[in-house]
């Protein structure tokens, strides 16, 4: 898609708990890879302003419980109202945030033969996060059963084809991979391959920003590194471990940022006006969910759009955030 936990010591510990350290990376973005037990899996808190597949799952689950909300992956005021009504009816804290307790109350155990919006939620999750290629039919058919079993094996949990609390948690926590047709191009400056994974919310928020920027006719948005499929260390980065840090490149005056060399804000081909538009699109696509954007252009810093940080002359580091997150570095 965030209970505040203060202190750097806890932040470092929480980060380590969130990632899988013994990770077999896929040869391609959706390669088979090795099964990994997601010991740090948790329900990603989602609220007003979020977007993406986890919001879509929440909308379908709200429909399952009788709430009339659209299934469009956008956490709008109507979804906020439905979440608050659900929380009130279940005796939960009424704050509009779908955190661990609200997720746990929303999810239902389903398996082969089930039908309805909760099944659609599972199918959407599997398609987005494991490229399952399922028809989002709302029917828990043989293909859905097989995809659930495959995911359970991937997550090293009981592979019984039944989507219960443990499977829901692992599905919701698992990172998503961006759609490069949404105005993005893949750059790999540090040789980290397909380190483009991020939380469902971060991916969708970036896709929306890239699509908006593409509409200006100034080229695609070059995507650098985000995270590994299950988090963990990435060479050349001190963060990028929890799926909420994403690097993009600045925009060039010739709009060739996806085909020509990377530049800095000092380069003669640097387009400040276009890069400003990109940062504005990033912030607009995720209202209340961008903690900061590191980039050292002094003009954009003076305008309050970016933040200075050493080593960020040639790329923009977006840090998305949630109201509730185990790591205080990622709380809004």
TrEMBL record:
Task: Show where the Peptidoglycan binding-like domain sits.
Answer: 52-106, 115-169
Composition skew (Basic and acidic residues), residue ranges:
226-239
Top-rank taxon of the source lineage equals: Bacteria
Region Disordered, annotated ranges:
217-239
Q: Which UniProt keywords apply?
A: Hydrolase, Metal-binding, Metalloprotease, Periplasm, Protease, Signal, Zinc
Q: In the UniProt record, does the keyword Signal occur?
A: yes
* The protein, known as: Penicillin-insensitive murein endopeptidase
């Amino acid at each position: 898609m965030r209970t505040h936990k203060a202190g750097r010591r806890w932040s470092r510990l929480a980060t380590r708990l969130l990632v899988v350290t013994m990770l077999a990376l896929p040869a391609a973005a959706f390669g088979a890879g090795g099964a990994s037990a997601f010991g740090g899996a948790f329900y990603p808190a989602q609220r007003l302003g979020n977007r993406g597949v986890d919001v879509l799952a929440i909308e379908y689950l709200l429909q399952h419980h009788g709430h009339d909300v659209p299934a469009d992956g956008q956490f709008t005021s109507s979804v906020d109202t439905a979440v608050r009504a659900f929380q009130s009816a279940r005796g939960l804290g009424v704050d509009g945030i779908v955190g661990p307790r609200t997720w746990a109350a929303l999810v239902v155990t389903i398996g082969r033969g089930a039908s309805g919006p909760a099944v659609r939620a599972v199918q959407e999750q599997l398609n987005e996060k494991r490229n399952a290629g399922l028809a989002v039919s709302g029917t828990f058919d043989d293909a859905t059963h097989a995809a659930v079993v495959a995911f359970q094996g991937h997550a090293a949990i009981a592979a019984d084809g039944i989507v219960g609390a443990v499977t829901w948690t692992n599905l919701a926590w698992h990172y998503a991979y961006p759609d490069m047709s949404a105005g993005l191009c893949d750059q790999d400056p540090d040789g980290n391959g397909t380190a483009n994974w991020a939380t469902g919310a971060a991916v969708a928020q970036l896709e929306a920003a890239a699509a908006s920027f593409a509409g200006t006719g100034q080229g695609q948005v070059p995507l650098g590194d985000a995270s590994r499929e299950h988090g963990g260390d990435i060479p050349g980065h001190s963060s990028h471990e929890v799926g909420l840090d994403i690097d993009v490149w600045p925009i060039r005056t010739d709009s060739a940022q996806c085909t020509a060399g990377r530049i800095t804000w000092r380069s003669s081909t640097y387009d400040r006006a276009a890069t400003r538009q990109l940062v504005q699109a990033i912030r607009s696509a995720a209202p209340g969910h961008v903690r900061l954007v590191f980039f050292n252009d002094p003009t954009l810093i003076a305008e309050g759009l970016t933040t200075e940080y050493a080593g960020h002359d040639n790329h923009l580091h977006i840090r998305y955030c949630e109201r509730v997150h185990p790591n205080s570095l990622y709380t809004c």
